Amino acid sequence: MDAHLYWCSQRFSAAPLTALTVLLILVRAHTFPYIVAESRHAKFVYLVCQMLYGDPGMIPSGWESTLPIPVSPAVLPTSPLAAPHLHTQQLHVAADFLQAVEEGIDANRLQDMDSFCRGFETVIFHAVHNASARMDVQHKSFATMCSLAVVLSEIAGVPRSSLHPRVRAAYALDRDGPGSVTRNREADSPLSRPRLTLAYLQHLARVRNCNGPRCTQTVFEDGRPFPVCARCKTVRYCGPECQKRDWSSAELEHRHKDICPLLRRLLCTAEIGMDDEQWTAAFDRALDIEAQLKLYLWAVDGPLFSEETKQRMKQNMKRAEEFILVNY
Questions:
Q1: Of 103, 213, 229, 282, which has the fewest Cβ atoms less than 10 A away?
Q2: Contact in structure between 238 and 226 (CB atoms under 8 Å)
Q3: Which residues form the signal peptide (predicted)?
């Protein structure tokens, strides 16, 4: 991996980052910790941001003057990667890398991207925002780039009204403008009941580990795919003992015995490949409010969030429930 990072840092071609993206997809458990290790993290961020701008010789916007330049030597204008016809290619390669960080196999969607951006949120915001304004809207990573730009804009202190029109349009930030139908604000939140449930189901589809209580087995240790629940087809188990404990253990707050029928009811009409509007509509049709809350709390208690965040989300949910009881 050190040799691979060396070739990425030479910036003679976009191919080394493409190869790294493939490694991240195939063997994330070994590759991702290497990328975000303190001794290498800044170098990867610097290289990816340069490629998002399509300029391997620039200092990325927002890079603090107090920070050392982590990559040397400087890229000469005669470098192959500096050629104008390669600007778009390297932008797309860097965007694909970020999409693999967020959505690749075995990715913890929220935590992994947070780990990659931590400490460099403003630098990465400027790079992805600039790239979103220039890249092909049909490119598979365009939506990921726009979403990341919106999320990081809050940390960078940039108001949403200042974001590029393409980013605003992709993220539906202007939907409630004149002449449009105002939508439910809670449903539009990234942490709404339907969206969080969808995010957790997508996480379960990507991450190849056992979902049994307190089990840490992964396919990397066992060397074989884990079977899924025969009923809901969403959760995996390394063996019948983990499945039995998850199904009916009195110690569990969310027994699969209670969650499984709700998932089956939901997935009869909804598919995890739906867009947000389709998923939210199907979610509301399939489940009453009590069932929605059960799935929401099940998703909150999954591995997507830190314990502190989980407690804060549950407190917000409790306040919302109290508001509903008082007013309705």
A1: 213
A2: yes
A3: none
- Outline where the chain has alpha helix (H): 2-10, 15-26, 28-35, 38-53, 87-103, 109-117, 121-134, 142-156, 165-170, 185-188, 193-206, 219-222, 240-248, 256-267, 276-286, 289-300, 307-327
Cα separation, 229 vs 222, in Å, equals 18
Per-residue pLDDT tens for 10-35? 888 889 999 999 999 888 888 999 99
Q: Which residue has the higher pLDDT, 78 or 84?
A: 84
pLDDT at 326: 52
Q: Is the pLDDT of residue 175 over 60?
A: no
Beta bridge partners, 228, equal 236
- Domain definitions of the chain by residue range: 2-170, 185-327
Q: Nearest to residue 20, comparing CAs of 40, 43, 1?
A: 1
| Among 117, 112, 109, 12, residue whose Cα is nearest residue 56 | 12
DSSP-derived letter for residue 82 is G
What is the spatial distance between Cα 221 and Cα 325, in angstroms, rounded to a whole number?
Answer: 48
Tell me how far apart the alpha carbons of residues 212 and 228 are, in angstroms, rounded to a whole number.
11
pLDDT of residue 178: 33
**Backbone angles phi and psi of 322, in degrees to 5:** -65, -40
- The terminus-to-terminus CA distance of the chain in angstroms comes to 59
Q: How far apart are CA 48 and CA 126, in angstroms?
A: 12
DSSP category for residue 71: S
